[in-house]
Amino acid sequence: MALAVDRHLAILAGISLSFVARQNNAPLPPGPVPLPLLGSVLSIDAYEPWLTYTEWGAVYGDLVFVRSLDEEMVVINSQHIAEALLDKRSRIYSDRPYLATLEPYGLSIDFGFIAYGDEWRLCRRLFHQTFRPESAAKFRPMQIKRAREIIVNLVDDPENYYDHFATFSLSVVMSTVYDYNISARDDPMVQTVIKALVPGLTVLSPERALMLKTFPFLLKVPDWCWGSSIKRSARGSTERINEMAEMPFRYVQQHMADGSSLAQSSMVAENLQRMETQEEAFKPAFENALKKAATTAIIASYETSAATLMIFFLAMVLYPEVQKRAQAEIDSVIGKERLPTFEDRASLPYIEAVLRETWRWQPAAPLGVAHAASSDDVYDGYFIPKGAIITYNTWGITRDEKRYPDASNFIPERFIDSDGALTSDDPAQYIFGLGRRACPGRYNADSSAWAAIATMLATLDISPAKDDQGKEISFTPEFIPGLVRYLTFFVSFCPLVTNSFVAPGFLRPSLAVFRPDLTFIQTLWIVGGLPSFEKKGQFAIRGRGDIAIDQVILASV
Ligand code: HEM
């Protein structure tokens, strides 16, 4: 009943907003001709909007103007223009689009989605101190240790590979931010995170964002009144998210108060020590920003890192010759007596090329995170209006056939020149976004992905599973759309019995709230038509030899 009411209100909201007339007559970038009221909303591929934007790029060029209902959007289809606007004019292009649901549901704790301003600046500065390249390097031994734990978990429980990738993402970030070691099963801190994010994010959707934007009074109606379900669910979500932010924070404070050596080198501990020397008046704002930066790290890293490892797994199954070549490089450079460490990285160019191709082939965030123009601008003769959503089509860049011939295939060799050295083209330069809002966790993300990929290649053979007759089970990879894109049949359904942060199946419809390029109509389409989660294919994982697996197990104890 509540859902039906919400949907009706959402439709009303959409219609009323679409009557808002645009006053500006200045020339805009070329783009599809909008329908009255609806704009181009019905022409955009609801599952994979980046495909539509890429097609429009071929027709209209690298800068495309799109109107969807009341929203104005500029799609950037080339790295060159992205650099020119997001980076060189970052003063104008560093804001985020307004999402009416963020604040009421407690999700403004994620500074990745808040407006460009002083609070964002402080959060980002705190975050950067821990995650900038020089500081991030000190976490590498921990990342290697965690990567080896993936192998132990995979050998122990190969079916739930997704959970092991999720546990890896979470264990790396919890160590970095709180110096907290998560336990293998039923960890209380992980349960708190799950409790906060599963229901918290599931109740969110662009429908509600649009509804609250149009009918903000819904947050004020008394509890007994019709339409109050939004207010109550918002309140519950905020409470759970606050607990998720507070619990690990208190853990660090307690260890510091006990004088324990634990938590001395984490992001939170280091900054709490710094805070001691600050003026009293500044301390509350500083502590608040620190909590935001810490919680953002958890939210931002978990999904992206796990999704990347799934893409790598898929590539190894579909391209066995790549897997063999990568293993041969490890065997010849490192041998079979020990496992890869970061000291080996420079001597393993093919592994590096595999990582680059993993970033490029199926980018985890195909449209990045939308920016917003904070003032009017003119670029290359085109007018970009203040408030326009600026969508950077990362996917389109990865599919540029001039730069990446045979772009839909996984070919690490494209990053190796004729002398066997790496080329200067590194997709990490664009898949993490650009400008002042570019991903500040990218060095950590890059090291985590390298550690996991190199360790898995050194120790495991990954192949398609076989049926009872010994025939390989064929499958067609399917993805769940969202801010982060996931393979469907990898998805495990039961996050609460393991340490995985939250199953992507639960998260998907809700995270769409952070995709302001998706309107509520598209979201209904997606939510109504999510592919089933039945496992359509399963992978076989085998150790590459007892020595390697033994080493992993010993090293991770
Ligand atoms: C596979 C890994 C990852 C990918 C592909 C990725 C990608 C991105 C992208 C595309 C953005 C938006 C950039 C923009 O607005 O232009 C972003 C933002 C962000 N990422 Fe990542 N990310 C990854 C991992 C991580 C990790 C591990 C962390 C933290 C440890 C992290 C923290 C953040 C934060 C805090 C923001 C918001 C920045 C801001 O708004 O100022 N990310 N990421």
Essential attributes:
557 residues, alpha+beta, 4-stranded mixed sheet, two-stranded antiparallel sheet, 10 strands, 49% helix, globular, disordered N terminus, binds protoporphyrin IX containing FE
List the helices and strands and how they pair.
Elements: H1 2-18, H2 49-60, E1 63-68, E2 71-76, H3 79-87, H4 118-131, H5 133-136, H6 140-156, H7 161-178, H8 188-202, H9 206-214, H10 229-257, H11 267-276, H12 283-318, H13 320-333, H14 349-361, E3 371-372, E4 377-379, E5 382-384, E6 389-392, H15 394-398, H16 428-431, H17 442-459, E7 460-464, E8 479-480, E9 486-487, H18 504-511, H19 520-528, E10 539-543, H20 546-556
Parallel strand pairs: 2-6
Antiparallel strand pairs: 1-2, 3-6, 4-5, 7-10, 8-9
Helix pairs in contact: 1-9, 4-12, 6-7, 6-17, 6-20, 7-12, 8-10, 8-18, 9-19, 10-12, 11-12, 12-13, 12-14, 12-17
Report on this structure:
The protein is of the alpha+beta class and 557 residues long. Helix content is 49%, strand content 7%. The protein contains 20 helices and ten strands. The protein has a four-stranded mixed sheet. Strand 4 and strand 5 form a beta hairpin. Helix 12 packs parallel to helix 17. The longest helix has 36 residues. The site of protoporphyrin IX containing FE has 28 residues, from helix 4, helix 12 and helix 17.
Poorly predicted runs: 1-23, 490-515, 520-536
Which of globular, elongated, flat, extended, rod-shaped describes the shape? Answer: globular
Name the beta content range: 5-15%
The count of DSSP E runs of length 2 or more, i.e. the number of strands, is 10
The helix content is 40-55%
Broad structural category? alpha+beta
Q: Helical segment tally?
A: 20
Major beta sheet, strand line-up: 1-2-6-3
Largest sheet data: 4 strands, mixed
Instruction: Output the helix-strand order.
Output: HHEEHHHHHHHHHHHHEEEEHHHEEEHHEH
List the ligand species. Answer: protoporphyrin IX containing FE
- Report the span from N to C terminus: 52 Å
- What oligomeric state is this? single chain
Give the overall pLDDT as a whole number.
82
Rg result: 24 Å
